[in-house]
Amino acid sequence: MPKKQTRAQGLARQIQAVTGLPYTLCLKLCEPYAGSSLRLARELRAAGLPEAADHLLAVEAVATEASTWFAAGGEFERRYYYTDNARVQEVYRACSDAADAALDRAGFERQSLDTEAEVYHGAFLALSKAGTMVNGRSLARAALDVFSDDPTWCSDIIRSKGRAPFTYETATHLTGPATPTAVAARKAARAMARAAAVPRRGDEEWYEAAGMMVEVVWHSGVAAGLPPLEGRRNYQDHLHFMDGEILER
User: Fold this and answer.
1) Do 40 and 126 form a contact (C-beta atoms < 8 A)?
2) Which letter does DSSP use for residue 4 in this model?
3) Contact, 59 vs 118, CB < 8 A?
4) Alpha helices, DSSP H only, in the chain?
5) Is 195 in contact with 159 (CB distance < 8 Å)?
6) Whole-prediction pTM value?
7) Quick one: which of 127, 98, 132, 99 has its CA closest to 190?
8) I need a labelling partner for 16 at 20 to 30 A (CA). Which of 107, 125, 149, 248 fits?
9) Quick one: which H or E segment has residue 158?
10) CA of 131: how far to CAs of 61, 67, 179, in Å?
């Protein structure tokens, strides 16, 4: 009796049927990877938040399926752009439609930041939990790793709501031990809450929320036991450009 297809194998067959690319290549495009969202899900589960972990894994699966379809369209374009452009356009549209359909089935709006927003929701829960623990460094590090290296991009994501309204108001009621890790994690969670509340109006608000995300990453790094903004050149530049300071809130 043949073995049941894995999720990756099933998706590879669908991509092959649409693009005609070799199955081995399609399967390679569908290979799972241990990304930052998956590490965050593991840490959430280990911290006693299995529902948040399962939700994050489901979001990651949808986002991965959509991005794989786009990658397949890009690979077809790379191979045949100069030899059969009409077919390239046809296949790329089909791959784009398949990506949109995957998002639509899960309730996400097409061409939105909803999936990324829900990953940030998971990071907020991780930081909130770390703020209640004597040593939540691994949780804080997992949250830190999902944040984009561009604070202005983070500004767009944190102010996106995902599929359903998600409240960051619980940050105001956070309490926990006075250890440096817990204190910094609570500060990071509260900064996320402030950034999420910034209205989407114009550049002034865009930069305001980006500055708050610099706070988030700063305090998350401290909670993770790392030097503030280590390896985050764009965050350091943004802080300097805005002549800002990290507030002790």
Assistant:
1) yes
2) P
3) yes
4) 7-19, 23-29, 36-46, 50-80, 85-105, 114-130, 137-146, 151-158, 180-196, 203-223, 233-241
5) yes
6) 0.88
7) 127
8) 107
9) helix 151-158
10) 28, 33, 9
User: 227 burial class (0-12, 13-18, 19+ CB within 10 angstroms)?
Assistant: exposed
**Length of the chain counted residue by residue:** 249
Cα angle 13, 15, 19; round to 5: 120
**Neighbour-count burial of 48, counting CB atoms closer than 10 A to its CB (0-12 exposed, 13-18 middle, 19+ buried):** exposed
Lowest mean pLDDT among 23-37, 51-65, 113-127: 23-37
Taking the CB of residue 161, how many other CB atoms lie within 10 A of it? Answer: 14
- For a pLDDT cut of 70, what percent of the chain falls above it? 95
Q: Is 20 helix (H, G, I), strand (E, B) or coil?
A: coil
Q: Which residue, chain included where needed, has tokens 């938040």? A: 49
Nearest CA among 94, 86, 92, 37 for reference residue 60 = 37
- Percentages (nearest 5) of helix, strand, coil residues in the chain: 70, 0, 30
Collect all residues with Cβ–Cβ distance below 8 Å to 187 and sequence separation of at least 6.
215, 219, 248, 249
| Closest to 94 measured CA to CA, from 115, 69, 113 | 69
What is the model's pLDDT at position 244?
59
Q: Which of 150, 114, 248 is nearest to 191 (CA)?
A: 248
